[in-house]
Amino acid sequence: MKNKILLFVALVLALAPLVTAQASDGVSSPIKWKYGYGDGSKANMIGSQRRQDVPPSLTTSPGTGYSPAQIAGAYGFNLTNTSGNGSGSVLAIVVAYGSATIQSDLNVFCSQYGLPATSLSIVYPSGQPREKNSGWSAETMLDVEWSHAMAPGAKIVVVVSPDDSLNNLLTAVNYAVATSKADVVSMSWGTQEFIGELASDSHFNHPGTSFVAAAGDTAGVVDWPAASPYVLAVGGTSLQINSLSGSITSETAWGSGGGGVSRYEQLPSFQAGFNVNSGRGIPDVSYVADPYTGVNVYLTDPVSQTGGWAVYGGTSVGAPQWAALLARRKSLGNAGSAAFQTSLYAKCNSGFSPWLRDITSGSNGHPAVIGYDLCTGLGSPNAAQIASIPSVASISSPTLIPMHAPTVTPLPAPVISNPSSPTPMPSATPIPSPSPSPTPPPSQGGKASGNQTWGSWWSYGYFRWER
Fold it and tell me: What are the catalytic residues?
């Protein structure tokens, strides 16, 4: 593998015509397909070949998903000071493969919803992709359209990796920080945790830049990079909005959202008093993710060249919109930094209100409870309040509380070519922190060669089957 550490992506987006993500060396990744949560016979089981269901067609007009105005109203983006629209901030979206129609698709989305037009900066630090990928194309448009919708003043830089290898994705992350000077980096992709991930956490240790990652769409599972203490991990909810008032009628934990206790990352000091376990808990926060309460996206399939609308869910929805919220903080003078988690958890020490909506019902295998939990974290945003949290002195790294676990040999980092009343919080019930497990065998989506490891990567987005 020429000293590369590759983690291959198996997309969960139903638009993708490929059943597997083919790597440059011809190794195929395991399959993770699902049309949408709760689709029954139309939902493909994780790890199995895609069934013969006909993929849902794109529609000529927006579907029954939420619009930007509905989401902005529900989470309070519309209450943010008008000067806090993201202006003066740089928001980077890191994706693989990208799409040849990013700008034109965004233009259609903006026209439909009356959003201000913007010119994207699209860069390819490791070269142009050699193939088209429908799944990643849809993921790209979900991230770009909804980050712009929630922070219309921010400069959006789409940093495209030519494939879904870890080396190239992290090269894109490095480029976003060093060259694009991003204030916030959004990552709607991840993998199962792996031995050596701590060595790769350094890619996100950049005071002055905030990193946001989707917690994943496998119930109760911890994924990386969301598990990194330098990354804000976003879990999922099911959101019901009153169609008349625009207010939230209910928000519960999404049953397929990722979450749990890291087996390798130590408990960061900012989680002390919230997470009673010895390892890093994810998610930190939550956002709508259920495809049945999903959002409208406009895209052009790169293979069929067909353009249209679809409804998407998954924790991919929340990651770019939380990133947009941090961009709004920047424009209000509350500069994004690696210390955001420290500020957020500190604010919640005296109660979650008014900063967040504590989600107290539902489960992803870990129940949502009053206070912090491993399903929805601290909760969903009251955007105007989050945007107003003042910045604190930048911290080069969060203090880690040692966890007692067997010692593992760290994996070398990839070689990169480019450098209100308070909410009561009862004590949580601890869950055991799992001991490090051996690198999974090929049948589980992983393979080891010497001290090199790779697993299965996927982007986090679900397509809802429109009946």
Answer: 139, 143, 316
